[in-house]
Amino acid sequence: MNDTPQKGKVYLVGAGPGDPGLITLRGKFLLERAEVVIYDHLANVKLLAHAPASAELIYVGKKGGVKHIIPQDGINQLLIEYGLAGKRVVRLKGGDPFIFGRGAEEIEELVKAGIDFEVVPGVTSATAAATYSGIPITHRDYTASVAFITGHEADGKEESNIAWDKLATGAGTIVVYMGIKNLPIITKKLIDNGRSPDTPVAVVRWASTPQQRSVVGTLATITEVVKAAKIAPPALIIVGEVVKLRKTIDWYEHRPLFGKRIAVTRTREQSSELVSKLEEYGAECLEYPTIHIEPVTDYSVIDAALNNMTAYDWLLFTSLNAVTYFFKRLHEKGFDSRALAPCKIGVVGKTTADEVSKYGLRADLIPEQFTGECLAKALISADEVQGKRFLLPRALKAMETLPEMLEDTGGSVTVAPVYQNVPPQGRKEELRKQLLAQEIDLVTFASSSAVTNFLNMLDAQDEAELQQLLKSVKIAAIGPVTAETVRKRGLKVDIQPERYTINDLTKEIVACYCQEC
Ligand code: SAH
User: Fold this and answer.
1) In 10 A of CB 354, how many CB atoms?
2) Is CATH 3.30.390.50 the classification given to domain 294-422?
């Protein structure tokens, strides 16, 4: 599939219900090779990350009741145009393309135009909504049948395609798509046609996403419940005795960080580990990279050192980036890890040690507490400083505590910049808006520079405004130095792990919210 076929092909791919993990392997495979992706409002945009950077991404969002951004005819036309142009097109549709997805209509047009196509099923939102709200849509003791219906049909149509008389008591579980607007009509039709008004009903909005909300009532009460909870589309209505099982089975909304919005402020490159851990616990993470890491422009110090490694007793790493950029330069200069044989290696913490081990090297020294100061103290107490020579590859701007302590104790330190932190641009307004609307529960900081850059991004006029903006936001800091930087700005640190690792930070965040729940 590496070469563009002469004839184009359109793949109708089910994106699944919302959780980006619910796309099929086949769907992901096709996305990874797409030249054009045409996607809907209900397809999670996170899935677009699977597409190649060169792919053209076209949003044709549709929202029930709201004017279509591109009408169905226009979508069909787009598919035909790109198909005829010989492109490999992924038409990414929410849920399953053939369940209330107008997939067949799109294909009929492709057939007319003589364009090849393929269809990849997806997890439909009905099963996802049920599963993620703790409702098994079938159960031996409750129901042996399930019906998927559209709620659009109920709307003023003289002759509905739905046989309400048969459906009301004919299907054990009934799942209604696009039914929120017509909920009063739907419940009335079911009751009028013989379904008990006491039948349990659940309504699930934005199923399988961090914004999921579910409410439960009966056929008689659910309209009021939905109104009171202000549930708007997209939502599904699940009718049937199986709804009772939610009490026991509900799992998704019970995860400890469910419903929590967390701003994660590491570099984009580094935030993914923390983000995936927090998401595992149910949090919604908003990534606000506050640092952009770039190589330095002047390598003279590190290059001179690399050519003369025998001049050093110790090679010290105080950050993951230092390891990455140091080895990048080492390899660029035609060396490999053997060039470091004359030196012992000291690292600030376990994560950095793990990074070093990727290059086949074992750290000789890891202090008990993961700070530069503690690394210096550990070296001093091991009597490894007096008369020793240290190479310290690091950021262009960094704290001087470690080199100063070593120099003061009779060591000689070569500080060799290998990378620099540059504040990233953009997304300031979005961040301020979210804070003003109190939409962020927690912000995490993994370094002092992240604190400084994040707070600067807020453009607060003074400390008072800063405190006001962050008044309902908890603050998590990875270690004491970062925490101190937060406090210096007049803010309170709510969460700080004893060990300065992403794992421990995650655990503390979970523990903090578990106390509340
Ligand atoms: N092809 C899609 C359905 C498209 S019709 C599928 O298989 O799921 C659009 C309707 O689907 C919405 O009005 C809503 O009722 C339902 N829907 C889609 N995604 C949803 C979600 N994440 N949560 C709740 N309902 C959803």
Assistant:
1) 13
2) no
CATH 3.40.50.2300 at 9-122, yes or no: no
CATH class of 261-291+424-514: alpha beta
Reading the block at residue 37, the tokens are: 């992706």
| Burial annotation 325-344 (CB, 10 A radius, 16+ → b, else e) | bbbebbeeeeeeeeebeebb
If DSSP codes are grouped into helix, strand and coil, which group holds residue 502? Answer: helix
Among 24, 60, 98, 125, residue to substitute to test ligand 1 (most atoms within 8 Å of Cβ): 125
Task: Kindly give the number of the ligand 1 atom that is closest to the alpha carbon of 204.
Answer: 24
- Measured from the Cα of 103, ligand 1's closest atom is 1
pLDDT tens over the chain, length 517 residues = 555 446 899 999 999 999 999 999 999 999 999 999 999 999 999 999 999 999 999 999 855 545 557 888 999 999 999 999 999 999 999 999 999 999 999 999 999 999 999 999 999 999 999 999 999 999 999 999 999 999 987 555 556 789 999 999 999 999 999 999 999 999 999 999 999 999 999 999 999 999 999 999 999 999 999 999 999 999 999 999 999 999 999 999 999 999 999 999 876 556 678 999 999 999 999 988 887 788 999 999 999 999 999 999 999 999 999 999 999 999 999 999 999 999 999 999 998 999 999 999 999 999 988 889 999 999 999 999 999 999 999 999 888 999 999 999 999 999 999 999 877 766 778 888 899 999 999 999 988 888 988 998 888 888 889 999 999 999 999 999 999 999 999 999 999 999 888 899 999 999 999 876 5
Q: Which residues line ligand 1 (CB under 6 A)?
A: 17-18, 42, 64, 94-96, 99-101, 124-125, 129, 177-178, 204-208, 233-236
State in Å: Cα 16 to ligand 1 middle.
Answer: 9
Matching CATH topology for 9-122 and 294-422?
A: no
Q: Where are the beta strands (DSSP E) in 15-112?
A: 36-39, 56-59, 88-93
Q: Please tell us whether the domain made up of 127-250 is placed in CATH 3.40.190.10.
A: no
Atom of ligand 1 nearest to the CA of 93: 1
Instruction: Write out the catalytic residue numbers.
Output: 40, 62, 178
Strand-pairing partners, residue 93, are: 14
Domain ranges of the chain: 9-122, 127-250, 261-291+424-514, 294-422
235 C-alpha vs ligand 1 centroid, how far in Å?
7
